[in-house]
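Input set for joint prediction.
Command: fold jointly, output tokens.
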Amino acid sequence: MPSPADALPILDVDGLSVRLGKMDQNIVDNVSFTLAPGQTLCVVGESGCGKSLTALALMGLLQSPPLSISGGTARLGGEDLLSMQPADFREIRGGRMAMIFQEPMTSLNPGLRIGEQIAESVRRHKGVSRAAARNRALEMLRRVRIPAPEKRLDEYPHQLSGGMRQRAMIAMALANDPELLIADEPTTALDVTIQAQILDLMRVLQSETGAAMIMITHDLGVVAEMADKVAVMYGGHIVEAGSVERIFTDPQHPYTIGLMSSMPSLGRRQDRLVTVPGVVPQPGAMPKGCRFATRCPFRTEACETVPVLRPCGEGHEVACIHAPLENLAARDLRETGT
Amino acid sequence: MTAILAARDLRKDFVTARPIFGTPTVVRAVDGVSLDIGQGETFAIVGESGCGKSTLARLLLRLIEPTSGEVWYDGEDLAHIDKNRMRALRRDLQFIFQDPFSSLNPQMTVGALIEEPLRVHGTGPARVRRERVAELLTRVGLRPAHADRYPHEFSGGQRQRIGIARALATGPTVLIGDEPVSALDVSIQAQVVNLLEDLKDEFGLTLVVIAHDLAVIRHMADRVAVMYLGEIVECAPADALYSSPRHPYSETLLAAIPVASHGARRAHTPVEGDPPNPISPPSGCRFHPRCLYATELCRSARPELRTLPGGRQVACHHAETLTLEGLTNAEAARSPAATERFALYARAMAGSATAPTDKNNDP
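tokens >
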């Protein structure tokens, strides 16, 4: 996805692949993208598309075994994350890069006060005094707009509401000024008005800190609100990638089109939703060529070879041999002579 | 409109703590709800966590006992009839749960699960019941052979189809779904939404859908009731509610939806704060601490749900004078070529609607 903003990427992922056990197909396969400071990349797709595994691989948090990295590099400011030793990774994780999860209780320690948790991370990475770390924790709670932060500092996670917990986790993630923030479905468990608050907060904090962000989501609405760039994943492949404008105004891949068609419109009432037929094949049982072929209404024999991402407009790539689809339709019409 | 199901001043209190001394802590989960659901309509109840929408759904089918109030179905008050009569009426009134797996006994085959309500209601003999099971499985997009398998062998979407087949077994007139599609992926969700709409048309069902996803509701519902802290704050036809909400909370909800269209990012200020604790709801209008338009009156007097000229119901003191913003410009902006592509996709899908589905429906 070349664009001027990519001149000096903070993160350069090239050919990232993840394998499950001894399965001969990668479950994340040849994923590449770059990310510039201050940019937000949204990775969108449905269950099992590999979006969360991509995030976990970048954070060095793959459960190994059975998961392992089977190829590729991911350079964060020049250092390859994928070949890094666990000890070195611990220095970076929570420092130069941080992660926000869907369920804050999975990353907050239920037995530690909020203030202690944030301060612990600050002391670990910045080596400052106890008092300074506590001050930093207080400052962070203020920045994520938690009401009465002095009081919250000494509370336990279970005493906070879902939205406040998510704010506390964001405070912890940002406490060490990370260059890269990875957010895996950060608002999926929240009510819609709280989601709007958290998304708003994340935008403000990102513009203040200039951190790059990878946001994993299944919600195209969240993508439209947050993304600069979008990668659509299906079956472990990026099937389409581009600027948020290109993806929404000129989507190319049949899966992207199917996904968007499946969403009910908020603007008017349709007769019937257009769907994507069938279900995602099991990992390891993906078709050999294009992994979307079993569900694609446009598949032909040519789809049995793996399609590569190729440019289809300014800052826009698609992995479909038939794109743009309107040409396929024109060719069909010529062939059938109608 | 003939109401098929109606609630009158329905209440449900849950006691959350009962100290030895002093008064017990009570949550008014549903606090005086009245509504009429018309024969053959799709009626939606929306609201955020803790607003009481799931409790209300369960009260409507008497899956839980109300603290007070009435539920009228076909001339009978469900809240006050005896257990045997209620059991007989369950043939007409069926429920679909959010997570079909937790509502399906994992040790029973799919066939036995779907047959169970038929057996309970004395539909027989066994051969007839089995034929009915095969017919139901086919109707919801599965295959008769799936009757011999177990729930864990199926994907989320397929399990929801099984849940629907089970609910349909007794030939109900009213189907209530508590978040029936919200656990499903978008593409699977669309398949199940279409199925529910087809079944509704085919069997003349009345559908009550509880949901938090306002886009799904927009698509499915004829009328929508918006709930906040145990009360209905607005009840209106879906089109009217989305284009011109009359309650500030409805406006807030609509403004919070992230719209999947480029350039739709609005400069809205999201509502501040969390929903209040239902154990000690605010005085007066329950929404007033988060409301942009609250006045002194709202802090002291609790607004009743009242009918405005034109038939919409709103519980807001200032409904007549407020000008609230609905969803405008939620239509996706696409290039002409992309518009053509979407039409092409829709046509291709209409042409090959079943072929790829069957191939992949094997668990």
